[in-house]
Write a structure and sequence with these properties.
The chain is an alpha/beta fold and 470 residues long. It has 14 helices and 22 strands. It has three domains: 220 residues, FAD/NAD(P)-binding domain (3-Layer(bba) Sandwich), CATH 3.50.50.60; 110 residues, FAD/NAD(P)-binding domain; 105 residues, Enolase-like, domain 1 (2-Layer Sandwich), CATH 3.30.390. Strands 1, 2, 3, 4, 5, 6 and 17 form a seven-stranded mixed beta sheet that branches. The chain is globular. The N and C termini lie far apart (76 Å).
């Protein structure tokens, strides 16, 4: 029974304090809106608390652990390397706490009121926010829905016990001796590779014929090769039938090309996608339309079927990316403040923190040709880059795709060291309408990894200096 309910009038109500919601709240406050933000759990959402940040912290620790053990290649002898995973987890949590605390300070500094509780629409102008046995009604002029997403649960692999999602995997206090990962998308590859570096015996089961199915085959080959080197077993065309408990873990039963196989492990990590958190919001009471998968339908400003209610991030169609959510949050906040802002998805980068890293922005060469673009591409290997060689990390390449007639860059794909950082130059080039000449004539510092982008542009222009193209 809920008691003590009363109504509060607010200007702009933001539901969800993740990377989309808190950014939207701050941007709206900067534009003069009086903003109230409702968060049911922790500020920072999935990304800061149980997603992007903790996973990348642990992946970084795994890389360091591996690198230390390989320093003999540089002539540096290191004694026994000891892993204290509980301490690694504590270090990771310190980063999370620092960043979530920073979000709270930013909201306070921008005079955004933060309310803790579960939001439920009553009608198109009101939500009820429930906290324990208390509830408050908020009547708003405008609202931005930014409630994010959660891991998809398979009927054949229900979460619980030894069957875990990425949330539980990132909180493990011990390294599993054996780990079966169901799903070879970016989350499965990142976490599977991480645990392998820490010493787990990892098997990745993927239902399609390739891991990372949304990326180019020539890019994925480098990741497959490194996984094999790290003794990760990758099984493709594996259709999971169910799971059985064992004495010390669980066994996944899967059909692999018509043959039934069992994969035993301490834990089964299921990473087969995410679903929007829209089913418990009472959207029907507000008249907000969703599709049959629960995604909210919006226009280019983020407006839903109810014009004064906006939606952003993982609750709207498109990739579940924190940077996409933050971008949409700014657009929606500006639209709510009366500005003519609209989304433009031409240059949203996708990154996989695999080994080696993978990053892509814009169109691949095949996608460009499918769109009728007479495309030209230039590819330059990290193996010909001095900085990459000095880092003992020279696998992979940069590929720049451009319109042959105009030279305008339409896509960049990278697999190799620091791909996650280097892709920003590709995104900027596409956003600014830069040409191959613009990149090739930009002086890049030497010796750096960034030179590879310039070199790839020169290859596309037919005038490479540091490789011979046959």
């Amino acid at each position: 029974m809920v008691v003590g309910e009363f109504t509060t009038e607010v200007d702009l109500l933001v539901i969800g304090g993740g990377p989309g919601g808190y950014v939207a709240a701050i941007r709206a406050a900067q534009l003069g809106k009086k903003v109230t933000l409702v968060e049911r759990d922790q500020l920072g959402g999935v990304c800061l608390n149980v997603g992007c940040i903790p996973s990348k912290a642990l992946i970084s620790a795994a890389h360091q652990y591996e690198n230390i053990r390989n320093l003999d290649q540089m002539g540096i002898a290191v004694g026994d390397v000891r892993l204290d995973f509980a301490k690694v987890q504590a270090w990771k949590q310190g980063i999370v706490d620092r960043l979530t605390g920073g979000v709270a300070s930013l909201l306070k500094g921008n005079k955004v009121e933060v309310v803790t509780g579960e939001a439920l629409f009553v009608n198109e102008r009101e939500v009820r926010v429930i906290r324990g046995y208390e509830a408050t009604r908020y009547r708003f002029n405008q609202c931005i829905i930014a409630t994010g997403s959660r891991p998809v649960e398979l009927k054949s692999l229900p979460f619980g016990g030894r069957v875990i999602s990425s949330t539980e995997a990132l909180a493990l206090q011990e390294i599993p001796r054996r780990l079966t990962v169901v799903g070879g998308g970016y989350i499965g590859i990142e976490l599977g590779g991480m645990f392998a570096k820490f010493g787990s015996e990892v098997t990745i089961l993927e239902g399609t014929d390739s891991i990372l199915p949304t990326f180019e085959k020539e890019v994925v080959r480098f990741v497959e090769r490194r996984l094999k080197k790290n003794k990760v077993a990758v099984v493709t065309s594996a259709m999971v039938q169910g799971v059985e408990e064992t004495a010390d873990g669980a066994a996944v039963v899967a059909s692999v090309k018509g043959e039934e196989r069992r994969f035993e492990a301490d834990y089964v990590l299921v990473t087969v996608g995410r679903r929007p958190n829209t089913d418990a919001l009472g959207l029907d009471q507000a008249g907000v339309r969703t599709d049959d998968k629960g995604w909210i339908q919006v226009d280019r400003q983020g407006r839903t079927s109810v014009p004064h209610i906006f939606a952003i991030g993982d609750v709207v169609p498109g990739p579940a990316l924190a940077h996409k959510a933050a971008y949409e949050g700014k657009v929606a906040a500006e639209a709510a403040a009366g500005r003519p802002s609209e989304v433009d998805y031409k240059a949203i980068p996708a990154v996989v923190f695999s080994d080696p890293e993978v990053a892509s922005v814009g169109l691949t060469e095949a996608e460009a040709k499918e769109k009728g673009i007479d495309a030209v591409a230039g590819k330059f290997p990290f193996a010909a880059n001095g900085r990459a060689l000095s880092l003992l990390d020279a696998e992979g390449f940069v590929k720049v795709v451009a319109d042959k007639a105009s030279g305008e860059v339409v896509g960049v794909q990278i697999v190799g060291p620091s791909a996650s950082d280097l892709i920003a130059e590709g995104a900027l080039a596409i956003e600014m309408g830069a040409s191959l000449e613009d990149i090739a004539l930009t002086i890049h510092a030497h010796p750096t990894l960034g030179e590879v982008i310039m070199e790839a542009a020169e290859v596309a222009l037919g005038r490479p200096v540091h490789i011979v193209v046959r």
